[in-house]
């Protein structure tokens, strides 16, 4: 499989007012993040709230400008591409959000919502566009007679199907899906995830699937990257990450996933619960050390880089293995 997306050493900082003095402080939302996604592949991006997952997704679709690093799509550097240069690239990468309401105009008919990207990119005659919209409605499990409805007439699951249809209109190669099912009822989540799997096969799509629900991520991902305080702490094949997690933080996450085999739970280290440190003032060395049960002096002093570990994954831990 050839590489579709490459993210190299991406960093993003935000200036935020601090305390009563109001003097700005810096949040290192994303710090030196690198990964690649092959055509047709799903990379799951997981981690606690605030670890930087959405910021990574937004930099890939150019909703946010990185401070450092590069985004390459099909080998082309799109990090600072002009609006004009981005036009053909924009068709290749689409994003869907947790709350489709934010991206769907409430006054627009749903058929027009799906047609709009085709008009913007000057694709097809009016008749061809109508046919394409009807086809997309069918593929995402919406009925043609719903094309005249505004989004408020749809259920949450149907609205997300509509957002998916709109994202598919331009035949993208990659969809960045930011918590696409976490706002939906549990009973509906599986339906939308299964739809995403089906259309992935049909369209040869790749996903960056951002989520905090580890069960769903396991179901859909070929590989998984785990983020903690703006950095990737472990990345590898889904089976390696879930069955043989190497980073103590990944083990903590995996311990929270219900497991069919209770005997295996006891072989896992116990990590004390605790607050995620503030990204305004991250700990020295390995930023996980204050919560880590196996931290030693080196962890407080030196920040570990990602290195290959026995499971075949890469982990940023002095004591992995
Ligand atoms: N526009 C912004 N201005 C200031 N700080 C921001 C901004 N966007 C994000 N942040 C901060 O950057 C960090 C990473 O946020 P981000 O939304 O990427 O995390 P996340 O892992 O996607 O979390 P969640 O799952 O809650 O969305 C957080 O500390 C957040 O408060």
Automatic annotation (TrEMBL):
GO molecular function: ATP binding; ATP hydrolysis activity
Pfam families: ABC_tran, oligo_HPY
Every ABC transporter domain range: 5-254
Top-level taxon in the UniProt lineage: Bacteria
Cross-referenced InterPro entries: AAA+_ATPase (IPR003593), ABC_transp_ATP-bind (IPR050319), ABC_transporter-like_ATP-bd (IPR003439), ABC_transporter-like_CS (IPR017871), Oligopep_ABC_C (IPR013563), P-loop_NTPase (IPR027417)
One of the record's GO cellular component terms: plasma membrane
Statement: the UniProt record of this protein carries the keyword Transport: yes
Keywords: ATP-binding, Nucleotide-binding, Transport
Topology in the lipid bilayer: Peripheral membrane protein
Record-level GO BP terms: peptide transport; transmembrane transport
Compartments, as annotated in UniProt: Cell inner membrane
PANTHER family (alphabetical): D,D-DIPEPTIDE TRANSPORT ATP-BINDING PROTEIN DDPF-RELATED, TRANSPORT ATP-BINDING PROTEIN
Family, as annotated: Belongs to the ABC transporter superfamily.
Stated name of the protein: ABC transporter domain-containing protein
Organism of derivation: Aquibium oceanicum
């Amino acid at each position: 499989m050839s590489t579709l997306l490459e993210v190299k050493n991406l960093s993003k900082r935000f200036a935020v007012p601090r305390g009563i003095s109001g003097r700005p402080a810096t949040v290192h939302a994303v710090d030196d993040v690198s990964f690649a996604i092959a055509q047709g592949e799903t990379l799951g991006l997981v981690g606690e709230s605030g670890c930087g997952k959405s910021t990574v997704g937004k930099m890939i679709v150019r909703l946010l400008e990185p401070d450092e690093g590069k985004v390459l799509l099909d080998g082309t550097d799109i990090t600072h591409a002009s609006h004009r240069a981005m036009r053909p690239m924009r068709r290749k990468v689409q994003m869907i959000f947790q709350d489709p309401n934010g991206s769907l105009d409430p006054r627009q008919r749903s058929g027009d919502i799906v047609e709009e990207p085709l008009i913007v990119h000057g694709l097809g005659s009016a008749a061809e566009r109508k046919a394409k919209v009807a086809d997309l409605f069918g593929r995402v499990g919406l009925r043609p007679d719903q094309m005249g409805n505004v989004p408020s007439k749809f259920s949450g699951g149907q609205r997300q199907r509509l957002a998916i249809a709109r994202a598919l209109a331009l035949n993208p190669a990659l969809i960045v899906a930011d918590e696409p099912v976490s706002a939906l009822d549990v009973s509906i989540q599986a339906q939308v995830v299964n739809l995403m799997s089906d259309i992935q096969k049909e369209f040869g799509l790749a996903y960056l699937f951002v989520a905090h629900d580890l069960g769903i991520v396991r179901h859909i991902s070929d590989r998984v990257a785990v983020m903690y305080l703006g950095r990737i702490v472990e990345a590898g094949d889904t089976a390696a990450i879930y069955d043989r997690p190497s980073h103590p933080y990944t083990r903590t996450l995996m311990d929270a996933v219900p497991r069919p085999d209770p005997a295996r739970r006891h072989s896992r280290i116990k990590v004390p619960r605790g607050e995620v440190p503030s990204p305004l003032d991250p700990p020295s060395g390995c930023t996980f050390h204050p919560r880590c049960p196996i931290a030693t002096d080196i962890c407080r002093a030196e920040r570990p880089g990602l290195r290959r570990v026995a499971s075949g994954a890469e982990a940023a831990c002095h004591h992995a293995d």
